[in-house]
């Protein structure tokens, strides 16, 4: 457990302004426009209705 706190202190010293208003790279990333959502063409479900009922039919063989 002490090792985890030592590591945390080390990283806090290495990156004191990470993900803050002083982190230039992070601010550039946050200020960019959002990516458009992915579009999946010709997608449709396989159908099949009630899957629980179909599963029950397998048990009645």
TrEMBL record:
UniProt entry keywords in alphabetical sequence: Nucleus
The answer, when asked if DNA damage is one of the entry's keywords, is no
Location(s) in or outside the cell: Nucleus
Any single biological process term in GO: RNA 5'-cap (guanine-N7)-methylation
Q: Which InterPro entries does UniProt cross-reference here?
A: RAMAC
Main subcellular location: nucleus
* Gene Ontology CC terms: mRNA capping enzyme complex
- One Pfam family from the record: RAM
Q: Where is this region: Disordered?
A: 25-51
Q: Where does the source fall among the domains of life? A: Eukaryota
The family assignment reads: Belongs to the RAM family.
Q: Which PANTHER family match?
A: RNA GUANINE-7 METHYLTRANSFERASE-ACTIVATING SUBUNIT-LIKE (PSEUDOGENE)-RELATED (PTHR48168), RNA GUANINE-N7 METHYLTRANSFERASE ACTIVATING SUBUNIT-RELATED (PTHR48168:SF1)
Protein name in the entry: RNMT-activating mini protein
């Amino acid at each position: 457990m002490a090792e985890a706190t030592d590591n945390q202190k080390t990283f806090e010293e290495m990156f004191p302004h990470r993900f803050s208003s002083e982190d230039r790279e992070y601010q550039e990333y946050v200020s960019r426009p959002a990516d458009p959502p992915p579009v999946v063409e010709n997608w449709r479900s396989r159908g099949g209705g009630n899957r629980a009922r179909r599963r029950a039919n397998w048990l009645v063989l």
